[in-house]
């Protein structure tokens, strides 16, 4: 694949490496009268993979849904590239450079592989630019190129995850939010997916915020690890350091 | 054999209209997961528009175009003004509100135009053409079949070849994911209602002249048959609506021709029960999801 799919879109200044692309402060969000996230602070430097890990119910999915607008925060600020993201309607956040691959991948089972991919870039209109972006994804994920006309429900779990990430790339994101990409996949497929995420970051400068229950896999590819416990951030450290902190792992991650 | 061919051909012509009306129901179901019980009354109302415009101008085609436009407008008003505000509540609420829309529309039509049956003009003869000594389709039947075929083709192209069609399908199948991808789901829902009501208006203008005539309740039977068609074909399947429409049309024609018109509704009911027992989701609705 060329760098095109994950290159910053025209008119958007590329963030300098190490600068926070996403800056979250004081984020409180939940469902109905029950808050799930409490005063969450998070910084995602441009070009990094940041993994948010934690037990079931820690608030990982709610965090991503609050960032993409599917859950309305009660308090806090979310800035993407310096701009206030909370002021942007959900449907327009993709224009701001945010791509969210939801839990369970979000592949639309009734649409073909090609239709799913084109949908990722329709917000820019159609035409040559969209076709080029889709072709670049086919070059990156060759198995998808062999299933162009297959409906989503005929794909394997690994292919669906590939399609979900590919569709996000077609939108030419600045920040990719990934919710449990390992869910339901065999260990070998998980390893392939994680390696692919690392390549996207290293080779193309994509910035990724990943939430995972599969702590070892996530931290093995991440630059920074964030531990979320009962809706609160309890640690933010280099990923390798988290992986080797026995006390923290036992206390919050269960292994 | 001649009698069979005649019944078969007339059944196909009638079934084509059922298919279009059922397709209107399928469009709403796919967009909003609502069975639009007001579809029949809405189509009756727009057929009065066709009648009025044709009477005023003497031009059938202007009347047809006015009905389709009025249908689109009525779909917009019903969705934005009524259904949108109840759609997120219990599904039963949508059904009750739709039945309320039926009562309001039929009452207003009755007050404005009376309850007598009014014959409608058609642009082609309804006398059957004789082929090899057998009475087959009339010129009007051929027009109906051709118009329905063109409409189905246009809708098929809209949904499979255009960006707006892709957005509409995505919004219907996965609204939350579609929002994340920048699809204006709310607008797609409105567009679904608009399109569906226009399609229903088109079907009603085609079929009402072949029945007793225009009346506030003229589409009641059409709605019941089209609803059966949609269930038989699969509520989420446009192909099911097309095939189911033809099947029900031919079934009605054959039962009426050989056993009498009183048995025709029973035959359709039996078909409905059999399909619900064998394939509860409809003949064309099921899809197999591969395990990850």
If you had to describe this structure to a student in words, what would you say it looks like?
The complex is a heterodimer of chains A (255) and B (292). Chain A is α/β, with parallel strands linked by helices and 255 residues long. Chain A is built from 9 helices and 10 strands. In chain A, the strands form 2 sheets. Chain A has a 6-stranded mixed β-sheet with strand order 6-7-8-3-9-10, sandwiched between helices. A 4-stranded antiparallel β-sheet of chain A has the order 2-1-4-5, covered by helices on one side. In chain A, strand 9 and strand 10 form a beta hairpin. The longest helix of chain A has 18 residues. Chain B has one domain. Chain B has a two-stranded antiparallel ribbon. In chain B, a hairpin with a 2-residue loop joins strand 1 and strand 2. Classes of the chains: A alpha/beta (255), B mainly alpha (292). At the A-B interface, helix 2 and helix 5 of A face helix 6 and helix 7 of B.
């Amino acid at each position: 694949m060329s760098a095109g799919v994950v290159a910053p879109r025209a008119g958007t200044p590329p963030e300098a490496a190490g600068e926070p692309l996403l800056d979250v402060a004081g984020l409180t969000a939940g469902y109905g009268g029950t808050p799930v996230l409490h005063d969450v602070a998070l910084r995602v430097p441009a070009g990094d993979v940041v993994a948010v890990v934690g037990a079931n119910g820690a608030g990982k999915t709610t965090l991503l849904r609050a960032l993409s607008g599917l859950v309305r925060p009660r308090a806090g600020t979310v800035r993407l590239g310096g701009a206030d993201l909370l002021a942007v309607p959900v449907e327009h956040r993709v224009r701001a450079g945010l791509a969210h691959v939801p839990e369970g991948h979000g592949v639309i089972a009734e649409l073909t592989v090609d239709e799913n991919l084109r949908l990722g870039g329709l917000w820019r209109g159609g035409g040559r630019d969209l076709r080029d972006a889709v072709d670049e994804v086919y070059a990156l994920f060759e198995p998808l190129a062999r299933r162009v006309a297959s409906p989503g429900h005929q794909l394997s779990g690994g292919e669906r995850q590939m399609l979900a990430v590919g569709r996000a790339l077609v939108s030419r994101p600045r920040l990719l939010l990934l919710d449990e990409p390992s869910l339901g996949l065999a260990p070998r497929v998980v390893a392939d997916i994680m390696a692919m995420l690392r390549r996207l970051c290293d080779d193309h400068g994509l910035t990724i915020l990943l939430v995972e229950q599969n702590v070892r896999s996530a931290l093995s590819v991440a630059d920074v690890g964030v531990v979320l416990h009962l809706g609160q951030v309890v640690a933010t450290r280099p990923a390798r350091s988290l992986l080797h902190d026995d006390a923290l792992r036992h206390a919050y991650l269960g292994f | 054999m001649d009698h069979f061919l005649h019944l078969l051909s007339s059944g196909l012509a009638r079934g084509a209209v059922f298919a279009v009306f059922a397709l209107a129901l399928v469009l709403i179901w796919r967009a909003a997961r609502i069975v639009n019980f007001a579809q029949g009354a809405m189509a009756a109302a727009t057929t009065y528009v066709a009648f009025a415009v044709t009477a005023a101008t003497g031009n059938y085609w202007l009347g047809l175009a006015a009905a389709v436009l009025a249908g689109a407008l009525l779909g917009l008003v019903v969705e934005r003004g009524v259904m949108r505000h109840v759609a997120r509540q219990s599904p039963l609420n949508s059904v009750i509100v739709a039945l309320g829309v039926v009562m309001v529309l039929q009452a207003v039509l009755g007050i404005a135009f009376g309850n007598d049956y009014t014959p409608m003009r058609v642009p082609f003869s309804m006398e059957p053409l004789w082929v090899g000594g057998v009475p087959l389709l009339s010129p009007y039947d051929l027009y109906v079949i051709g118009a329905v075929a063109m409409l189905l083709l246009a809708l098929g192209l809209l949904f499979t070849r255009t960006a707006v069609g892709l957005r509409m399908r995505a919004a219907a199948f996965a609204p939350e994911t579609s929002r994340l991808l920048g699809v204006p789901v709310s607008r797609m829902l409105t567009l679904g209602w608009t399109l569906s009501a226009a399609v229903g208006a088109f079907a009603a203008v085609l079929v009402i002249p072949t029945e007793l005539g225009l009346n506030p309740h003229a589409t009641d039977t059409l709605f019941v048959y089209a609803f059966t068609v949609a269930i038989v074909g699969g509520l989420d399947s446009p192909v099911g609506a097309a095939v189911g429409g033809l099947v029900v049309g031919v079934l009605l024609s054959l039962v009426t021709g050989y056993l009498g018109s009183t048995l025709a509704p029973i035959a359709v009911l039996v078909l409905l029960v059999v399909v619900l027992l064998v394939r509860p989701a409809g003949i064309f609705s099921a899809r197999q999801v591969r395990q990850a």
